[in-house]
Every structure is written in structure tokens, then in C-alpha cells.
Amino acid sequence: MAVRLKIFQVSYVACGLLLYASSASLTQAAVQTLNYISLDTNAAYANAKVLPYANANAPKGGIITYPATGTFDNFNSVNGKGTPAEGVQYLYDSLMSSSLDEPGVMYPLLAKSITYDPQHPKTAVFHLDARAKFSDGSALTAEDVVFTFKKLLTEGAPGIRIYFADIEDVQATSKYDVKFIFKSKDNKEMPLIISSVGIYSKKDWQGKDFTKVTLKAPLGSGPYVVDRIEGGRSIIYKRNPNYWGKDVMVNKGAYNFDRIKYVYYRSLDIAFEGFKTGQYTAHTEYTARRWVTEYDFNAVKRGLIKKIDFHHQNPIPTQNIALNSRKKPLNDIYFRQALSYAYDFEWMNKALFYGQYQRLQSFFDNSELEAKGKPSSAELTVLQPYLKSMHPLVKHGVMREWKYPVSDASGFNRFNLLVARKMLQNQGYKVNQKGQLLDKQGKPIRFELLIHQDGLQRTLMPFVRNAKKLGIQIDVRQVDVPQYLERVRNYDFELTTSILPQSLNPGNEQAQFWSSAAADAVGNYNLAGIKNPAVDAVVERLIRSPNREQLVTNTRVLDRLLRAGYYYILSYGKGSEWYAVWDMFEQPKRSPKLNVGLQYWWINAEKAKTVQRYIQGQS
Question: Is the predicted pLDDT of residue 19 greater than 50, yes or no?
Fold first, then answer.
């Protein structure tokens, strides 16, 4: 279930403290120059020489290989065209780099420091590291940063333009200083968002059309460059030995592989067969059945495959079935509510998932952002202005302790389906002699559930069967990846599956997920077509939250509104990530808290030889 968000390239690394208060701070806590960005938390590693989850002495060498599905035709991943290539994030550095231990904290990369008011950022001046260079050796300057953002704001994908809508202007005030001016001073997250964007070369783009797909990678300043492309089948990146940023604190002990390769497969099921034979060496597992039952092949038995269950502290990605409310009768909240009763998680977890998953009860599950119990007094204060105009069903949902219907795991789901049928009857839906549920115009209700992944039918068919018991015909339609992306981009579906990734610091991306503006923008992520004034208002409050406490409160209120609107049927997830790797890698003694940190791993040369001998012997 994956609709991937590829808005910008985020560098995962981190750096040190250089603080000074300007004269404005004499009157109020205002403009400061800092060598980190932090959203209401301390920057624990501001004075560090190396990150605690990195090994500064890690050896360089070897190759790591990942799978990818479908195909690719575009190395410009931000113009919203074509199918972006995997791994493009390795080509570009961003202004700062995310801490893998601390939510909402970034340390220097291209920018050595920032001058701004952390509480009320009307402007932000990034001071670039004069050592920064593109991979061809040319200097990276403020003009390149200005060029990148002006392209994003005018020719980037529609979702990106919404994401950066609070930027009023970008100016190069000197060769190495770039100033961002914002439309408001209340969006504390904007400097952090800006810091995450991969920077392009202005010179490299001269005479080129930014809006076109390209299989020639634009010039970047990151740790890798493109080595070899086999059209639609594989991409190899090689480590740049002259990488300018190898000694920056966040990069010490990182990017140790000489090469990173992506091998493309038609599906994840086919890819796994390739993993068994060593066609690629690092596999992320998404299927409970496979995780529990299929790691019994010869390489596992010989101890050459290592399984890793990495428990993180992030919100669980929101896996769901999106109900496109642009279509009838999905625009009826009562119909959507009734349809949600057809989803029988308890039986699926027992029969299909080997008890490995939990039912998602929140869009921010596994975190403090999840709305639990009844609304707190702080949440009620936020909700109060909207309660009078709120749909009665939404009002009931936001005010109660939320829990999706629970079945007896027998596989019949009898009680919940009876409840759903009563709901539909109460709203005027009727069933004809053939057992078909009729809409209010007397037509049988029939939907298409659009997917692109092989094997997904297995987890969807129980829902399809239960819907049929209600008289609703759902046809699962599997298409290839390009067709799927094009149809989703234009909201040409009734039901589809998706995954909405969330972070511990929700911000501008929430407007892309839920706002009325995003519902009308082609290529955005409001798949359900949500148009709700209360949601719009709370998203704005969330984005402009002045402190962590209010951010949490606003996010919980948003969570309540989304659940009570029945726009998505939340399905299942887990607070961990499953990895299987050929046993040729080493990693630092301490793992980061928010990410497995593969960029800090390295090759064990002796183990790699053993693995290679085995793989060659099998071929």
C-alpha cells in the first residue's frame, strides 16, 4: 500500500553550537545565530564532534544493493513529472541535516549556521559553508539556493508549491548568505522545511527545461554521483572521493559504501526471489506472512541472512483504504461510516498476519500526537468554535473515546455487518431482490478498488467479501505502476490503498494531506478529497503552533476530526520496521531512535567474501 512522497531530498545526518543573540534580544528573545535548528527541544549534539550513532572510523568500500519496483524515467524528482528514480537523495546536499535521534532538530550541512528568530521567523538567513562544492568542483553559492527555491515555487510539482506557499521571497545577500522572507512570522517549521531541500546548480540548469523528465541526473553536491544506468532496470551510484562534506560532523562515519545500487523488479514478490539468490543485499520486509514463514531458505539456514526487527519512536505510517469523497455515494459520511464496519481487522490479524500487527486507531499512532480518550480541556478550547457548525456524526466522533469496531475474529463479522446494514437503512439505502445495495437514485452500488501491488488482493478480499454481504460490489483492479500513479495523480479512482507517512513534527505537509486546496490540486495527497472548514482551520493552527505543547494539542484535534469524518479506513501497522540483510554489514554499537541509520553502516570485508562465494556457488 504505497503512495510515495518524493517532495524533496532529505539528508539524514547532523552538527555543533555557535550561539549569539543580536541586539534585538535585549528587548525580546528574537534574532539569534545558531548552528542548528530545533523545534522546542534542545539540540543534544550541538557540541558533538561525531554523532553517537556513527562510527567515525568506519572503513569505506563495498556495495549495498536495494530493490525497487516498477520503473523510472526522471532524475528530477521535484517537478512532478514521470516516475522518479530511486536513490536521487544521495546526489544532493541540503542546507542542514536531520538528527536521527531528535525530532525536529537539524545540524549544519551546506549551511554552517542560520540567523533567525526561532519563535517568530519572519526571515531566516542561512550562512553557507564556503567549502561547499558541487560534484564537478564548482562552488555552491547563495545564487544556487535562490535558483532552487524559485524553481520549486514556480515550476515544482503542485504539492511542492503548496508546501512552500509561505515563502514570499528568496534573496542572495552575499556570495554565501541567502535570505528567506516569509509571508507570516508564525510558521516555526518553515526554516526546518527549507533546510531539508536538496540544492541544484543554477549553472547546470542553464538552457534546460525544469519541467521535463530527464534521465541525466542534475548536478548535485551530495556524497554520491551516478555511475551507471540501465534504462528502467537498475541504477548504480558511486561514492564521490572528492565529496566536499566528508568532514562535516553529520557525515563523519556516514556514506561508507563505495557503491549503492537499485535493482528494479515488477513487484515486491518477484524482488524477494531475487533477494534469496543475492541479486540485492538489503531487503525491507512489509509482509507479516513472509516475515514469519518464508525465511527458511538455504542462506538463512546457513546463517548468511540476518533478520532485524528495528523498534522506532516514530508515528506508524498510516496504512489505509482511501475513500474518494469526490464520488457518489462516498460523499455521504453515513455511507462511509457503514462501509468502515466491513473491515474485519481481528480476523485478518489472526488468519493472515500471524498476530504481528495492531489496528491503527489514529493517524499518528505510536506517538504522543495520537488523540486518546475524550478531548482534553485544551483540545476542547480548539474545537469549541467549530462545534455548532459541525456535522452531527463528526461532532459525536470527536467528543467520544475513539475505537474502531471490533469483531470476534471468527471471519463472519456478523454483528458489525448487521450494524452497518441498519445504518444504511436509516439513511434511505435499499436492497433489491438480487441483494444489491441501491444508491438514492435506485442504482446498484459498485466500486473499483485501484491497486498496483501483486499480492495485495489477499489482504483486501476479506473487506471485499464483507462489503458484498452488505450488497456493495467492489472490484479489485490491479494496474501497472505508471498507470496507477497517473490515475491517483488525477484522483481517477473510487477506492485505493495508500500509506501516509507521519513525523513527530507535523507541519506544512498536513495541508497537502487534508486541506480543501489540496483536494482540488492535481497530483496532491488529499486522496479522499477532504473539504472541511474545521480541518482547514486546525491544519493552519497546527502549522503555526508557537510551541510543542500547542503543536501536540492541535495535532490531536486534527486526528479527531479526520477519524470522525470517515475519509479513510485505517487498517494495520506496527511500531517497528523489519529488515533482512545478507550478513556482510556492520553497524555502530548504538542505533538511532528514529531511523535504522543504514547510511552509517559499513561492509565487513571478510564476511562479504564469504557471502560472495556462497552467491557465486548458487548461480
Answer: no
SS (H, E, C) 361-387: CCCCCCCCCCCCCCCCHHHHHHHHHHH
Under 8 Å between Cβ of 435 and 467 = no
pLDDT digits (tens, 9 = 90+) for 432-479: 999 999 998 999 999 999 999 877 888 999 999 999 999 999 999 999
Domains and CATH numbers, the chain: 224-311+578-618 (3.40.190.10), 318-426+453-464+475-573 (3.10.105.10)
Count CB atoms within 10 A of the CB of residue 18: 15
Q: Which residue stretches of 294-408 are H helix?
A: 298-301, 333-340, 345-351, 377-387, 392-399
Query: In terms of C-beta density within 10 A (0-12 exposed, 13-18 middle, 19 or more buried), how is residue 133 classed?
Result: middle
Print burial letters for 482-495: b (CB count within 10 Å at least 16), e (below 16).
eebbebbeebebbb
Find the radius of gyration of the CA atoms of the chain: 25
Cell numbers found for residue 164: 512552500
pLDDT, tens only, 580-613: 999 999 999 999 999 999 999 999 999 999 999 9
